[in-house]
């Protein structure tokens, strides 16, 4: 049995659109920060059984096609012909735009490959995790991570955005704001497919996001939280513009999402760094300086007493947990 833990990540330059849905190749590169608060722990044992089995938080679940795909790749690479018994514990609010699939497939890739006796490099792990969920390729690493779009299976992998370091030695914090715990209405895969197929803005999105990668990398190297936040907010809104401009149009925004964005802009006018990013769900994340976290929460709670906040710092890459 092998057990692994992986943390979620928040994309500062988003992945939005599959160039090749089978191989899970994206149109554009993306860049994220791994967070230290939300994680998945998964154990995998290969057993003499007829079928794979999957338990989530102690309850048996159907084995999704994506899980089967990742386990099949592990079986093909290792030559093992056994069934996988998978037990996952999720410490992430499920499917509410907090990217539980990223931590889930990163943990699965590490646990399953180790249980099968494979000793994959982190690049190989990132490629394996990508087949379950694109964003999972980035959760193999800690800190700031870039996923290179690549041309084919082997060239589409993630690695630290700043050469050889997963440490973040400046006071950036991410405030996860929970406005809605319900399941998302449009899955990220369905949303991406609709944007790619029907938004006239899509090609411009993909080009603009790719061009944002070196800008974001420079802002990270300069440890400039304000620049990182401003670039991330612009990129997030450009991504959401491809849903609003799809045919038929759709959105992940809820009324509170827009109120929170407006409040963040008001807080900025008071001189604090407070920028918004949003994924395929209504819960925004605020990018700010660690020393401003309490003040920002206070500002929000004056107006929105029901919101809950989780303050996150940069987190580690995926690792094996001792049984
Ligand atoms: O990896 P997926 O299929 O869950 O897609 C993630 C998409 C976004 O969260 C919206 C953006 C990203 O890069 O994480």
Automatic annotation (TrEMBL):
Keywords of this entry: ATP-binding, Lipid biosynthesis, Lipid metabolism, Lyase, Nucleotide-binding
Its EC number(s): 4.1.1.33
Biological processes per GO annotation: isopentenyl diphosphate biosynthetic process, mevalonate pathway
Mvd1 C-terminal domain boundaries: 175-307
Family: Belongs to the diphosphomevalonate decarboxylase family.
GO cellular component terms, semicolon-separated: cytosol
Domain of life from the UniProt record: Bacteria
Diphosphomevalonate decarboxylase-like N-terminal domain: residues covered: 6-158
Protein name: diphosphomevalonate decarboxylase
A GO molecular-function annotation: diphosphomevalonate decarboxylase activity
Pfam families reported in the protein's UniProt record: MDD_C (PF18376), MVD-like_N (PF22700)
Keyword GTP-binding annotated: no
């Amino acid at each position: 049995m092998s057990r692994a833990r992986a943390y979620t990540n928040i994309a500062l330059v988003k992945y939005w659109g599959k160039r090749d849905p089978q191989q899970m190749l994206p149109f554009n590169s993306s860049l994220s920060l791994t967070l230290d608060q939300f994680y998945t722990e998964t154990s995998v044992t290969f057993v003499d059984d007829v079928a794979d089995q999957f338990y989530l938080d102690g309850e048996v679940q159907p084995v999704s096609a994506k899980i089967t795909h990742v386990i099949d790749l592990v079986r093909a690479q290792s030559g093992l012909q056994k069934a996988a018994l998978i037990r996952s514990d999720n410490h992430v609010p499920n499917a509410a735009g907090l990217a539980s699939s990223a931590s889930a497939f990163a943990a699965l890739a590490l646990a399953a490959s180790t249980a099968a006796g494979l000793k994959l490099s982190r690049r190989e792990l990132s490629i394996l995790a990508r087949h379950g969920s694109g964003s999972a390729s980035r959760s193999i690493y800690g800190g700031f991570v870039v996923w290179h779009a690549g041309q084919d299976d082997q060239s589409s992998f993630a690695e630290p955005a700043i050469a050889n370091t997963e440490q973040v030695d400046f006071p950036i914090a991410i405030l996860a704001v929970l406005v809605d715990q319900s399941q998302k209405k449009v899955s990220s895969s369905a949303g991406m497919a609709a944007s790619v197929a029907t938004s006239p803005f899509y090609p411009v999105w993909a080009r603009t996001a790719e061009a944002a990668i070196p800008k974001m990398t420079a802002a990270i190297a300069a440890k400039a939280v304000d620049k990182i936040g401003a670039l991330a907010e612009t990129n997030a809104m450009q991504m959401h513009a491809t849903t609003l401009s799809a045919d038929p149009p759709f959105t992940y925004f809820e009324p509170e999402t827009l109120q929170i964005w407006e409040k963040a802009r008001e807080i900025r006018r008071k001189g604090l760094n407070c920028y918004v990013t949003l994924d395929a769900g209504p819960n925004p994340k605020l990018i700010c300086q660690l020393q401003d976290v309490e003040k920002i929460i206070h500002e929000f709670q004056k107006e929105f007493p029901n919101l809950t906040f989780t303050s996150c710092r940069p987190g580690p890459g995926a690792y094996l947990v001792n049984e």
